[in-house]
Amino acid sequence: MRIQLLSLALISVFSFVSCNIISDAPQLSGSEEVVYFSSFESKAELSGWKGGYKVIEDSPNGGGIKSAHISGGCVYPHFYRTLYPTQAEQWGINAWAKNLSNGGSITLENRTTDQSIYLSIQDDEWKQLSSDDLLAVKDGDEVILTLNAGGFVSSSMLVTSVEVTKGY
Question: Are 160 and 112 in contact (CB under 8 A)?
């Protein structure tokens, strides 16, 4: 009987702890509808991405385990993927990011219309970022999501929980 009570108590404690961990997880989009999401935790979440990156074990509290480490010193995109909208709508971007050296950016560019929105990564601690502007997209457009660090000066950053959301 004591073993059963002890087992029940331990299960209750672990259930409570796991609920707290889940409730502390970063929630970026609120009520917005998510078009695309990646926290770089698995090979499936890296599918479709091109360019240079490393996945490392560093993330904000409650934000999983891994993040994409982007670094470089050239003007070309360092890590990017293509998205194809299926209808006319407005898209925004949200992410958690941390500057390691000289900052970086996350850009959502509609290649068809040559319009873009971006997030600037400057903080040395993990920070939740959301775009103030929205990007108009429509069926047939080619949209590029880019994580870029570097330019003419070398830099690096960490990024996780990247979301492209429908804005209203």
Answer: no
For 32-167, give the CATH class: mainly beta
Residue pLDDT tens, the chain, 168 long: 444 433 333 333 333 222 222 223 344 445 579 999 999 999 999 999 999 899 999 999 977 899 999 998 776 668 999 999 999 999 999 999 999 999 899 999 999 999 999 999 999 999 999 999 999 999 999 999 999 998 778 899 999 999 999 997
In the numeric block, the tokens 């996945």 are attached to: 55
- CB-CB contact of 79 with 54 (8 Å): no
Taking Cα atoms as reference points, which of 103, 106, 119 lies closest to residue 156? 103
Query: Is-contact 84 103, C-beta < 8 A?
Result: no
Contact 162, 110 (CB under 8 A): no
Q: In degrees rounded to 5, what are phi and psi of residue 66?
A: -110, 160
Instruction: Write down the domain spans for the chain.
Output: 32-167
pTM of the model: 0.79
Q: Which helix (H) or strand (E) holds 104?
A: strand 104-110
CA distance 101 to 78: 15
